[in-house]
Amino acid sequence: MNHLSEKENTVLKQIMDENGLTVDTLLYRYQAISYMETGSDGYTYIRAKENPLEIVIDPYHGEGHSFHASNIGPGLAFTSSREEEFSAPDKVCLQVKIGNILEQGGLLYRITSVPEYINAYFLTIPDGKVRAQVCE
């Protein structure tokens, strides 16, 4: 958890504890193949959206008000499990380890613009991309 203030680290830990998340937790998203890339290291990466549209609660700066994620910074939305309703013929299921984003100094936010039965999170991605794997 690099480059974070003491308050951000405390809030991040609280969010993770409340949601049963660890640095080894896998998160999922369905992504068009055209947004995936292979790095020089041979791994698959996905790029952060510059202007994400999700509505999130921001507990890091204030009283937990809702904001458009685009006001927070580049990042991506993920779910805590594979949600087949997000699948489509032109998309592939990808999984990302939370720790790979937190190592960059990324922050975790709850998304409120999805149905309540879906556990969805927005993560800022300071490096602009994150390593991912195709779901098995």
Molecular structure report:
The protein is mainly β and 136 residues long. It has one domain (6-134). Helix content is 13%, strand content 35%. The protein has 2 helices and 10 strands; from the N terminus they run H-E-E-E-E-E-E-E-H-E-E-E. The chain has a 5-stranded antiparallel β-sheet. The protein has a 3-stranded antiparallel β-sheet with strand order 6-9-8. Strands 4-5 form a two-stranded antiparallel sheet. A hairpin with a 6-residue loop joins strand 4 (55-58) and strand 5 (65-68). 22% of the residues are buried. The model has no long low-confidence stretch (mean pLDDT 92).
Please write the string of helix (H) and strand (E) elements: HEEEEEEEHEEE
Helix content: 10-25%
Radius of gyration: 14 Å
Biggest sheet details: 5 strands, antiparallel
Query: In angstroms, what separates the terminal alpha carbons?
Result: 28 Å
Key terms for this structure?
136 residues; mainly beta; three-stranded antiparallel sheet; 13% helix
Summarize the structure.
This protein has 136 residues and is mainly beta.
Strand-helix topology:
Blueprint: H1 6-18, E1 26-32, E2 36-38, E3 44-47, E4 55-58, E5 65-68, E6 75-79, E7 91-97, H2 98-102, E8 108-110, E9 120-124, E10 129-134
Antiparallel strand pairs: 1-7, 2-3, 3-10, 4-5, 6-9, 7-10, 8-9
